[in-house]
Amino acid sequence: MKIAVVGAAGMVGSRVVDEATSRGHDLIAVYRTQRPTALPPNVTAVEGDANDPDRMRTLFDGTDAIVATTRPAPGHEHTLAATTTTLLDAATTTRTRILVVGGAAPLHMPGRPDRLVLDSPEYVPAQWRTIAAASAAQLEACRAHHADWVYLSPPAVLEPGRRTGKYRRGTTTLVADADGASRISAEDLAVAVLDELEKPREIKHFTVGY
Ligand SMILES: NC(=O)c1ccc[n+]([C@@H]2O[C@H](COP(=O)([O-])OP(=O)(O)OC[C@H]3O[C@@H](n4cnc5c(N)ncnc54)[C@H](OP(=O)(O)O)[C@@H]3O)[C@@H](O)[C@H]2O)c1
Q1: pTM metric for this prediction
Q2: Which tens digit of pLDDT belongs to each residue from 153-167?
Q3: Which among 47, 58, 141, 171 is least buried, having the fewest CB atoms inside 10 angstroms?
Q4: Is the dihedral of CA 160, 161, 162, 164 positive or negative?
Q5: What is the CATH number of domain 2-209?
Q6: Ligand 1 and 71: CB distance under 6 A
Q7: Mutational pocket test of ligand 1: of 6, 12, 19, 128, the residue with most ligand atoms within 8 Å of the beta carbon
């Protein structure tokens, strides 16, 4: 597959590029300010701002899948939904499936279907509340859009780590272990992204975790 990764220099984007290239896919690694380093030969690194619709349409033309992994800088969280809509618009024009790596906030709490992770301080402490609310708005922007999208909510904790190749998959409820810990490495999240792209399911919103 030819896959465009937007936000390719970021924590998630760089792992998605690595996982995809290790599986033999051709990559367009779209970065804004920081060119990704040490790229394998089947990766083309290109500059592009996700808020530039013409540029995104041009870059998505001829791709089989798009992965959106942008994250706004602190203070700009309110831009996340609009940026995502620009990417969804471009993906619609090029008729390309788009996987959005979003947030855990719009998931339901385990055993508490009436409560969102967003409203659960045990998973979303005050300092994450703004980006968490932005990711909930981001999912709403996807739901309102007619693009061929799929939204991946990470577990509560997503950080660089080890690739185990193993994870559990859920739908709209946070995946947590018996002690309530909800986590995955960015490497294994990338495995889940590529598994979904290679074998798409009907589910529009899914999550993963250990
Ligand atoms: N538990 C959770 O729910 C959880 C935890 C972590 C991350 N996430 C989500 O996962 C996604 C990826 O996060 P991350 O941790 O990988 O973020 P990150 O490391 O901060 O990387 C984000 C990347 O997006 C790029 N970017 C931002 N705006 C852009 C734009 N307009 N055009 C092009 N590139 C742009 C940034 O480039 P610049 O350097 O140019 O700004 C950066 O390289 C986000 O949606 C984030 O909210 C969720």
Answers
A1: 0.98
A2: 999 999 999 999 999
A3: 47
A4: negative
A5: 3.40.50.720
A6: yes
A7: 12
